[in-house]
Amino acid sequence: MRWLMFSLVSFVMATFLGAQSGQVPEALKPYIGKPVPDAVMVDTDGKKLKISDFKGKVLLLNFWAPH
Questions:
Q1: Per-residue pLDDT for 17 more than 70?
Q2: Which of 7, 18, 32, 45 keeps 20 to 30 A from 25, CA to CA?
Q3: How many whole angstroms from its chain centre is CA 18?
């Protein structure tokens, strides 16, 4: 089940990114190529993590809010 969800998400992301290639909104252009602000978050075990802890690695951030 987990691999199926990963495959579906990967397919949707690839499709979306492929359709959007070369179309960067003007509001985002000043941020391209700049480092991401070092945000601190808490994982499910209560351990604090910083974005900089993952420097040199691929990091996927998923922001969501419950209804």
A1: no
A2: 7
A3: 16
